[in-house]
Amino acid sequence: MKSAFIKVNNIQLHYVEEGTGELVILLHGFPEFWYGWRNQIPFLAKKYRVVAPDMRGYNLSDKPANVSDYNMNLLAKDIAELIKALGEERAIVVGHDWGAAVAWAVAALHPEVVKKLAILNVPHPSEMKRALMSLNFAQLKKSWYIFFFQLPFLPEGIVGTERFFKRTFEGMSMNKNAFNEEDVKKYVEAYQQPGTVKATIAYYRAAFREVFSSKAKIHYPKIKAPVLMLWGEHDKALGKELTYNTKNYCENECEIIYDSTSGHFIQHDNPELVNRSLLHFFSA
């Protein structure tokens, strides 16, 4: 597996790469880094050129200092420019958690670079915003951590510790063998990179400002690329009902596969289903 750095959108991103063929971009979420795709990279690389970047702020990628450096327009532009910088016009884009939110934005705001879009356990941004703004109390209760991350200083003292990762993965995973001690050590090491904890929390702070601010509203055109959504039904952070209107945001094909054995970390809980479904979607 190749590890490298690349300059995009005035920052430097770190990424890992394996395989040859059509380009597939894997975008991780919080609280992970490229390693969150460890069960998918070698499998997909048998037929595709797989690139899994550390998103800005994470692990070995650059970590801009301001909350405004993590707004969605910039995050989406990172990935659009990454695809071009890797020498391709278009790519298949896959995202989980925050990576899925960014993937939605890339497909909406830069449709020319996305051939297909696969989303794991994150609703369309407009649907998430609607749930928060309309006082969906079930979702607001699940989203308590978003409000916690708005507090100054306190979240920085908790995120990134061994205890934090163990509680997060044990609490939100259905497959209790999905994460082992060695995995947790790798996550702790990644979050010990200077500035990582503050930067990863900045994603939530920037999003909160975007959702509740009267300025800088992002308009999401309908997704032109074919869409596959994979959803672990035991997600403790996001309600299944947030997926029901997904097809309204898509111009073309949109398939949703629900998995009753998985939670939020579906790619870890049921990697066989995820790998099989992604490969079928890519080749269809």
Structure description:
The structure is a single chain. This protein is an alpha/beta fold and 284 residues long. It has one domain: Rossmann fold, CATH 3.40.50. Helices cover 37% and strands 18% of the residues. It has eleven helices and eight strands. It has helices spanning 41-44, 72-85, 98-109, 125-133, 137-142, 144-148, 162-172, 181-191, 196-212, 266-269, 271-283; strands spanning 2-8, 11-18, 23-27, 49-53, 91-96, 114-120, 227-232, 254-259. Strands 1-2-4-3-5-6-7-8 form an eight-stranded mixed β-sheet, with helices on both faces. Helix 2 (72-85) crosses helix 3. The protein is globular, with a radius of gyration of 17 Å. It starts with a strand and ends with a helix. The mean pLDDT is 95.
Write the layout of secondary structure elements.
Blueprint: E1 2-8, E2 11-18, E3 23-27, H1 41-44, E4 49-53, H2 72-85, E5 91-96, H3 98-109, E6 114-120, H4 125-133, H5 137-142, H6 144-148, H7 162-172, H8 181-191, H9 196-212, E7 227-232, E8 254-259, H10 266-269, H11 271-283
Parallel strand pairs: 3-4, 3-5, 5-6, 6-7, 7-8
Antiparallel strand pairs: 1-2, 2-4
> Got a strand count?
8
State the helix count.
11
Instruction: Please give the CATH class.
Output: Alpha Beta
Distance separating the two termini? 27 Å
Fill in the keyword field for this structure:
Rossmann fold, eight-stranded mixed beta sheet, alpha/beta, globular, 284 residues, single chain, 8 strands, 37% helix
